[in-house]
Automatic annotation (TrEMBL):
Belongs to the peptidase C78 family. Residues 50-236 form the UFSP1/2/DUB catalytic domain. This is UFSP1/2/DUB catalytic domain-containing protein. The gene is 106080794. It comes from Stomoxys calcitrans (Stable fly). GO terms for molecular function: deUFMylase activity. Pfam families: Peptidase_C78. InterPro entries: UFSP1/2_DUB_cat. Keywords: Hydrolase.
Length: 241
């Protein structure tokens, strides 16, 4: 889209300054693929498919802008990472800015999704609010993939593989019993064992490098069986090619 197509709401987002450079380049490429255990000759002949987020995004995390949001801001931070992917995908990163947590709240109040008291609160947001925000600011539609409680996340592997094949976006994932919102930047599967590439925003402090985040487990492959089966999950999939 041309600059003239940019929404006024997005143009109104202010320029931010950070105490250190946020990590961006080569995040998904830096993580080694997980080793999938082979239990039979049939498994050894199974085909593997790996699909990753295509294009740069910036790793936003707790307190990265000096605002203390530990314990409640994880979905906001994942939304910021998703917004950075959208801006780079559309080549708007030199023209537009990433919304702050307060600007995200103001956006949700402006579209009447939230009451006025929401601005300045520590209220959590989820996949729907992420959808509303990126749609309002950037005119990017999203699909909400709902995984019910006690459902097997692996049942949705085919749909996630297709999404990453077709769009290669950065996905936001949130739940109820598992309330730790996270980004999903890829999937690796052989049909029987599947892993999601988690981008965890719960890091505090200034990360030294992407390798530092990987060694501490903030960027990691996680088996679909390791997600909390007593929790429902909503995944927000941005539809932008």
């Amino acid at each position: 889209m041309a600059q003239c197509d940019v929404k006024d709401e997005a143009k109104a987002i202010t320029l931010k300054t950070y105490a250190y450079d946020l990590l961006r380049h080569g995040i998904v490429e830096s993580v080694a693929l997980p080793e999938i255990s082979l239990t039979s000759d049939a498994d050894s002949n199974a085909s593997y498919e790996t699909q990753l987020t295509r294009g740069d995004f910036t790793y936003y995390h707790y307190g990265c802008d000096g605002f203390h949001d530990n314990g409640w801001g994880c979905a906001y931070r994942t939304l910021q990472s998703m917004a950075s992917w959208i801006l780079h995908k559309r080549q708007w990163h030199s023209q537009l800015n990433i919304p702050s947590l307060l600007e995200i709240q103001q956006t949700l109040v402006r579209i009447e999704d939230k009451p006025p008291r929401f601005v300045g609160s520590r209220d959590w947001i989820g996949a729907l609010e992420v959808f509303y925000t990126v749609d309002t600011l950037y005119d990017v539609p999203c699909k909400i993939l709902h995984v019910t409680k006690n459902d097997d996340l692996s049942k949705h592997v085919a749909e996630l593989l297709k999404y990453f094949r077709d769009y290669g976006g950065l996905v936001m994932m949130g739940g109820d019993m598992d309330a730790a919102s996270k980004g999903i930047a890829g999937i690796h599967s052989n049909g029987k064992e599947s892993y999601l590439l988690v981008v965890d925003p719960h890091y505090s402090g200034g990360p030294v490098s992407i390798e530092d985040l990987i060694s501490k487990g903030y960027i990691r492959w996680q088996n679909t069986k390791e997600f909390v089966d007593s929790s429902f999950y909503n995944l927000c999939l941005p539809y932008l090619k």
